Amino acid sequence: MIFETHAHYEDEKFDPDRAELLSSMGQKGIGRIINVGSSMETSEKSMDLAHHYPFIYAAVGLHPDAVREATEENIDRLRAWCRDPKAVAIGEIGPDYHYEKDPEVRQLQLTAFRKQLDLALEEKLPVIVHSREAAKDTMEILTDFAEKGGRGVVHCYSYSPDQALEYVKMGFFIGVGGVITFKNGKKLRKTVEDIPMDHILLETDCPYMAPEPHRGERNSSLYIPYMVKAISEIKGISTEEVEDITWENAMRLFNRVKDVN
Predict the structure, then answer these.
(1) Of 97, 103, 161, 211, whose CB neighbour count within 10 A is largest?
(2) Contact 200, 4 (CB under 8 A)
(3) Cα distance between residue 47 and residue 137, in whole Å
(4) pLDDT, average across residues 210-222
(5) Is residue 106 within 8 Å of residue 97, measured between CB atoms?
């Protein structure tokens, strides 16, 4: 069975066939899914999905695009959700400087990031980190977080293999998605080659980032076998081993998730 650690099935792109698609997951080998919030609205929808489907769990949090929502009232709402057994992580959170050039807004991103990391420590939950073109700030903040006992995954990893190894030393996991199948995904393939298998998680970020040969289409957890195959070839192990090891990795990090009976 496959453990999908990062999906967005609340997205409107799934409105036409969400129930049918999700109901097919078990038959297609997808055993567990974490639906990840990026705003107060999508976090609430993620919790709703988690309560509707036994194999879905939720992560709740504020993406850098939603940092203005990081009020004390909303942090309290996140805290309440974190105390629900179906909430297994805080995310996706972190800085994203790709489009945002305003120093004041970047500072808001970092402030919201730190608030949510503090909440993760308080609630003893792992974090799902979104970081884009913010390598230095992310590393500095997560180093402090790890020293305080924090843990998590760097989602949709896009930085250097050397930095990935530093995250692994800190106890973090590396999220590997469709980019590993892209022709221009050489840096991620090198990262997967260099880091230990016991720190890799499978993810799609669906409906985005579909792997080859479906690039440009709506992504879903059903495409994870393409990533599994790519990792197996890089690591020189079977696809079954990739599935088994990444399942155990996810269960180790998201320890509120119940295993397959």
Answers:
(1) 211
(2) no
(3) 30
(4) 97
(5) yes
DSSP code string of the chain: -EEEEEE-TTSGGGTTTHHHHHHTTGGGTEEEEEEE-SSHHHHHHHHHHHHH-TTEEEEE---GGGGGG--HHHHHHHHHHHTSTTEEEEEEES-B-SS---HHHHHHHHHHHHHHHHHHHHHT--EEE--BS-HHHHHHHHHHHHHTT--EEETT--S-HHHHHHHHHTT-EEEE-GGGGSTT-HHHHHHHHHS-GGGEEE---BTS-PPTTSTTSPP-GGGHHHHHHHHHHHHTS-HHHHHHHHHHHHHHHSTTSPPP-
| 80-134 per-position pLDDT tens digit | 999 999 999 999 999 999 989 999 999 999 999 999 999 999 999 999 999 999 9
Name the token pair of 131: 């970081």
Query: Length of the chain, please?
Result: 261
Residue with tokens 């309560």: 51
Quote the CA–CA distance of 211 and 105 in Å, as a whole number.
Answer: 32
pLDDT in tens, 36-68: 999 999 999 999 999 999 999 999 999 999 999
Radius of gyration, alpha carbons of the chain = 17
Are the CB atoms for 152 and 129 separated by under 8 Å?
A: yes
Residue 175, token pair as written in the block: 């999220």
